[in-house]
Amino acid sequence: xxxxxxxxxxxxxxxxxxxxxxxxxxxxxxxxxxxxxxxxxxxxxxxxxxxxxxxxxxxxxxxxxxxxxxxxxxxxxxxxxxxxxxxxxxxxxxxxxxxxxxxxxxxxxxxxxxxxxxxxxxxxxxxxxxxxxxxxxxxxxxxxxxxxxxxxxxxxxxxxxxxxxxxxxxxxxxxxxxxxxxxxxxxxxxxxxxxxxxxxxxxxxxxxxxxxxxxxxxxxxxxxxxxxxxxxxxxxxxxxxxxxxxxxxxxxxxxxxxxxxxxxxxxxxxxxxxxxxxxxxxxxxxxxxxxxxxxxxxxxxxxxxxxxxxxxxxxxxxxxxxxxxxxxxxxxxxxxxxxxxxxxxxxxxxxxxxxxxxxxxxxxxxxxxxxxxxxxxxxxxxxxxxxxxxxxxxxxxxxxxxxxxxxxxxxxxxxxxxxxxxxxxxxxxxxxxxxxxxxxxxxxxxxxxxxx
Length: 452
Known about the structure:
- By secondary structure, the protein is α/β, with parallel strands linked by helices.
- The protein has two domains: about 45-235, no CATH class; about 255-410.
- Helix content is about 35%, strand content about 10%.
- It has helices at about 5-10, 15-40, 90-105, 125-130, 135-140, 155-160, 190-200, 215-225, 265-275, 290-295, 310-320, 325-335, 345-350, 395-400, 405-410, 415-440, and strands at about 70-75, 85, 110, 145, 175-180, 205-210, 230-235, 255-260, 280, 300, 320-325, 390.
- The strands form three sheets. It has a seven-stranded mixed β-sheet, with helices on one face. The protein has a three-stranded parallel β-sheet with strand order 10-11-12. A two-stranded parallel sheet has the order 8-9.
- Helix 8 links the parallel strand 6 (about 205-210) and strand 7.
- Helix 11 crosses helix 16 (about 415-440).
- The longest helix has 26 residues, at about 415-440.
């Protein structure tokens, strides 16, 4: 018979330094075990735990928000529609998708893939997640999974669809929502483009493609050398919460413009400090409370750093006058190294089919007088041009700055016409999402209304 051990008395005899090491090892082991449980697919699903047994979020999160699966939107306890998961890292796209699902009367959960991968997931990492059971765990819970923001975050789900064993494949319908980051930070590009090529050709009944701007389809086709038959153009619905204007920013004034700078440019400081444009510059990453706070300024000056950004649509929807450089001026700023962006490449876009040619989509249209490549940037789309002000040089912007009355500045009446236009356009976007769900086999999905 093995004698019982008095662990307490034995532990008291252990030196203090060794006790610290033991405690540290135990804590590290608990963290690894918790994360391992999650990655292997058993799932840290907070709603399933009694309050006194919920794991500490710090043990499973590498950020302060979006721990595990969040029940983001419950439209109705009696909802009979498909179960939907948004596989996404970006707060702005989360809010956009919540607005869409609410309008379709569908419940929505959100999973932040940063919990299991960094940017630019490799094929090797995707394979490990498939083998560990992550894909099986996620896909067993949802009818539809929408991959948002950076597509490579969802590479394990996508890669599972071409696994030899059907048991390894995701059983959910996958929707790939492309938002300027189709191949963000991908290192093994040949393997990644090869995967997408196979999905386009072989899995059209299981993988559906959505673009929130005109660029995505020709971009994917260019790099995969594969024609995409059905990419739905469904832009953001232009919603924003009502947030207070931060007290640490300069107070709003209709005598000044507003801009938010980016980590890749100092063009806004050049406009303000050298060319004396009256401009309030919000620091990179600093919140400003949304478009309703921009209405207190003369207008919003934006020099694009992506082919499209969500605030562009939000500003139109709220009636914010936006001032954007013409394509000619934009190219000259890039050429003179006065503005840098790691997301926009006019030379690349010039390789895409010119608007109006047989290989170009009908949706790709051109503002008269603008170069062909600009048609692939939503900033220069004729659909939105009536609600945007273009300036071709600094002098034109200075002349607007000198105007005093709202009517002189906003002669297109964007403040009144923008919300009216986007309200109607939003309805078309929502109908497009409803049609997508019906095409996936969920016949009862329809638009039931919209509330911001």
